[in-house]
Amino acid sequence: MKLLQAIAFIILILSWLDFVNLSATKSMERAKETGIIKVAGAQKSQRIIQSLVESTLINLISISIALILVVIFLPLYNSTTGKELSFELINITSILPYFLLVLFGIIVAGIYPALLLSSYAPVKALKGKIQTSSQGLNIRKGLIITQFSATIILLIGTIVVTK
Q1: Residue 8 neighbours by CB under 8 Å, 6+ apart
Q2: Residue 64 contacts by C-beta under 8 Å, 6 or more apart in sequence?
């Protein structure tokens, strides 16, 4: 059971890294939107809140889909593996760590793209002359390298366990 939780945790972290990376990349396309919002008088805090709300909605939809899939496929998993895993959301103390983990992921996944978007100068954003800084590029490259490394480790671990 602990092994499955560890694998799920690693996959969750990989998903958040991917989400942050895609959001940062997508922010280049949303630079004009950000420029218009800034020119209209939006504060940095409002832009951060918007990004956090978007991140929260995407994560809640993803969690809902995941929970539905767990409910659907858990009996099949149990019959295939011979295990008797159960899915219960009744005990609040057992849910709290997962809730806090998801909350942390939502905040991290929402803050970085918001800070990235709010750092653009409105005039340059509206003209479409936004260039990625070397620091931002290095962060995204680091995220991609981390994702691929963790994926390779998971694949090697899977192969070793099956052999």
Answers
A1: none
A2: none
Asked if 20 contacts 82 with a C-beta cutoff of 8 angstroms, the reply is: no
- Rounded distance between C-alpha atoms, residue 76 and residue 155, angstroms: 23
Q: How many residues appear in the chain?
A: 163
pTM of the predicted structure, to 2 decimals: 0.69
Angle between the 2-29 and 44-81 helix axes, to the nearest 10 degrees? 140
C-alpha span between 134 and 32 (Å, rounded): 21
**Structure confidence by residue, pLDDT tens digits, 99-123:** 888 888 788 777 877 777 666 666 6
Whole-angstrom CA distances from 23 to 3, 20, 29, 48, 113 are 30, 5, 10, 13, 6
The separation between CA 41 and the C-alpha centre of its own chain, rounded to angstroms, equals: 29
Tokens in use for 131? 């260039």
CA 26 to chain centre: 14
pLDDT tier at 64, thresholds 50, 70, 90 = confident
Q: How far apart are CA 109 and CA 40, in angstroms?
A: 25
Cα–Cα distance, 136 to 153 (Å, whole number): 26
- Given a contact cutoff of 8 angstroms between Cβ atoms, the answer to whether 15 and 59 are in contact is no
